[in-house]
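User: Some background: our group keeps a shared notebook of sequences we're curious about, and every so often someone picks one and asks for a predicted structure to add to the entry. Today it's my turn. The entry only has the sequence so far, pasted here. Could you supply the structure so I can complete it?
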Amino acid sequence: MINKKITLIEGKIDVDAIFRQKIFKENGGEDDQALFVCNLTDVMRKFHLWCEKMPRVKPFYAVKCNDDDNVVRVLAKMGAGFDCASKLEINQVLQYGVSSDRIIFANPCKPNSHIKHAAATNVSLMTFDSKIELEKIQAIFPEARLVLRIRCDAKKAQIQLGEKFGCDPIQEAPLLLKNAKDLGLTVVGISFHVGSGCLDPPVFREAIYAARQLFDYAQMLGYRMNLLDIGGGFPGNTGTDIGVFADVVNSALNEFFPVSPNEDRIEVISEPGRFFVSSAFTLGTTVHSKNEILNKDRKVSHVKYYINDGVYGCFNPIISYQEVFQPYILSRHTVNGTNSEADASKLTCSIWGISCSGVDKICDKLTLPRITIGDVLVFTNMGSYTIPIASNFNGFPIARVLYFAESDSWNELDEPIID
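Assistant: Of course. Here's the predicted structure to add to the notebook entry:
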């Protein structure tokens, strides 16, 4: 059972101090469950940073990235919109008082029952990228406000999406706009997604230009589109700079969708996920076992450490998109910043997950000081595509989550604490 209570902290949140208190002192280093520390103030700061850097672009948080209730609740309170991919995600968002016009059903290939649910909850804004999807929507929810998703792939991204979703903007998109017109459906805009974890900021200019061309074509068909969805792909790890993306996006919007008193104002939205949550979640894992491998001289040449999480749990990104994780050590024997018991010399080591699977390897070829059973390995930037994908494979529990916020930031929400 995940404890949803939020603890308010005066001053800055000290993640290491929390791990020492919750793992070493309260559990004696013997807890069988890994522990997330969620910094909700970090989520709030990211929201303010987004609004500062891209004031024309309203964020619609991608729930799939991390569907944590407290994250959704905080972003709902701050005024974010939401990118939902299923009826369950729609229901999760609606329960926090989010109006249906703050949701985009951004799944281009929707099961019929989910389209029916969108109609029942008045979530009318939804994406499509094929004629078949148009026909499904026309039969089930003809009043829907449709957004055509085009393909424009980043040269480099952690997860490429264009092979699965999005139509060709030159060949297919004009035909689909005409198909929608023939079916009597309303198309209100264009969307794209350059790829999750984009490392190619200039691709946003290319995609926004392609959208502009389709806005102009749609006008010839009699549509007056008013929505541009620039998707996700924005980095969220500590130290990454949203500014380089914002510069490209803002410049392209000014060039291709300028604000003019003589034209209808275009609403611009986006679907950031990892930007809001990656750095907000830090995972503390406990070393429960180790195996020292000897060389021919009977000296330790390599150490295998085993921790209480793994690739079938919150380290799933290792499998999903070959994420590389680098921990730091919190030793229960540390005194004044040094390990009083462990050998200070460093050894080659690997870190393995808790399951019995042979592929459950988290890190390899590391060089670290000797680690004692009961020590904590801390992994930062663990907020995106971790908890929602984690399973109880082999019967091991998913990491628990503790929530913290700085008092000053929480007061701006005018929101009570969850008990």
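Suggested note for the entry: The radius of gyration is 24 Å. The CA atoms of residues 63 and 84 lie 6 Å apart.
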